Amino acid sequence: MKYIIILGDGMADRPIAALGGKTPLMVAHTPHIDRLTTMAKTGTLVTVPADMPPGSEVANMAVLGYDVKAVYQGRGVLEAASMGVALQATDLAMRCNLICVEEQKIKNHSAGHISTEEAAQLVAMLNETLGSESVQFYPGVSYRHLLVIKNGQNEIALTPPHDVPGTPFSNVMPQATAPSGEETAALLKKLILKSQTLLEGHPVNRRRRDRGKDMATSIWPWAAGYKPEMKTLHAQYGVTGAVISAVDLIHGIGVYAGMKVMHVQGATGLYDTHYEGKVQAAIEALDAVDLVYLHIEASDEAGHEGDVDLKIQTIEALDQRVVKPLLAEAERRAGGLTLALLPDHPTPCELRTHVRDAVPFLIARPGVVPDAVMHYDETHVQAGAFGQLQGTAFMKALLNQNG
After folding, report:
1. 307 and 357 fall within a common domain
2. Domain match, 219 and 237 both
3. Residue 375 pLDDT > 80
4. Does the structure show a pLDDT above 90 at 183?
5. Residue 32 belongs to what domain range?
6. For residue 248, is pLDDT > 90?
């Protein structure tokens, strides 16, 4: 049996008044997802424990069947793996966003979705001016970059910038949680303030300002951790895997999970991503591996922007440009392909950040009698045959390893 997990990042939501109390999943036109639902068993999945941050790193590792309490070390180490940055045991790695601060408040977490090319120039400048033997900046994709502090201490509290749009940045600066973290917290504060001075007049930002675009006015470190200990997917579940995404974080999980990491030209992580290219890569990967993790970021970014119409558009694109062709591929394979669909976490448009709510999921396995659920959304699947699962139970259910 072959498997494809279609992961619509942040696709789930909460009821929105402007939609008559419905969610984007409920109002989007998704005939192919609904058809898949009629072939599937459904349920809800809790991907984030109540005492852990509702980040994509936690949620996606849970979907892939990892005990997140045992392996979680923050987002930065995963992105380091994706970028090929080798970490020593005492290196503290963290995500380093380029963000837009206006009037001393965090306007957005993405510097207006700055291009990778523009960001690379800014990160190179920051590394040249702020970097040292103990501090290194590494360029990533768009606003998503990496900061590594040698011998850094992780007794610090760091706030994800997408959690606090509109907040004065000074209210959410790094803070030590123990005396051992005070030096690292002070260093991070210093780097943030110095970055603001350096970035303000950079030619890249001047050009963005002249074109009416948000500028990258500050760095913002968060999700710090050390190199994790993770078994491969094959060691855990006896299957080989591949991961397809536009996001370094997801690639990094794939690296530690021993999966084949596939890069698709034109995959942006936004609504304009190359859906067809990612689907074709997933189909081709099935010739070499057992399971493909097809990660689509667009709905999450729309949720962070608070753009309800765009989120609906991204869900409909997933339906037409991902689910439709994969349904056709499943039919072509005549019973040899299991399809699963779910988000990692909700990203409600009205909150513009992640929440821990259980997510809707479906598993369409050839030869299995489907349940009575006819529509895929946050409410209908609550009546599904799986009920509510926790953490690693989804992967066990997908692979039919629940005993």
Report:
1. yes
2. no
3. yes
4. yes
5. 2-72+230-398
6. no
- Show the DSSP H helices in 244-342 as ranges: 248-256, 275-285, 298-305, 308-318, 324-332
> Last residue of some domain: 172, 202, 225?
225
Burial class (CB within 10 angstroms; exposed 0-12, middle 13-18, buried 19+) of 305: buried
**Count of domains for the chain:** 2
- Same domain for 136 and 201: yes
pLDDT of residue 403: 43
pLDDT digits (tens, 9 = 90+) for 58-88: 999 999 999 999 998 888 898 898 888 989 9
Between CA 197 and CA 84 the distance in angstroms is 30
**Mean pLDDT of all residues in 147-161:** 96
Please state the rounded mean pLDDT for residues 144-154. Answer: 96
Which CATH number covers residue 346? 3.40.720.10
Q: Is the pLDDT of residue 217 over 70?
A: yes
What is the separation, in whole angstroms, between the first and last Cα of the chain? Answer: 18
Element (H, E) at 208: helix 203-210
What token pair was written down for 294?
């097809």
* Location of structure tokens 């993405």: 110
Task: Dump pLDDT digits (tens) for 184-194.
Answer: 999 999 999 99
- What CA–CA distances, in Å, run from 142 to 130, 131, 225, 278? 20, 20, 22, 19
Q: Are 33 and 368 spatial neighbours (Cβ–Cβ below 8 Å)?
A: no
User: Is 98 found in the same domain as 11?
Assistant: no
Cβ(386)–Cβ(41) below 8 Å: yes
CB-neighbour burial class of residue 27 (10 A; exposed 0-12, middle 13-18, buried 19+): middle
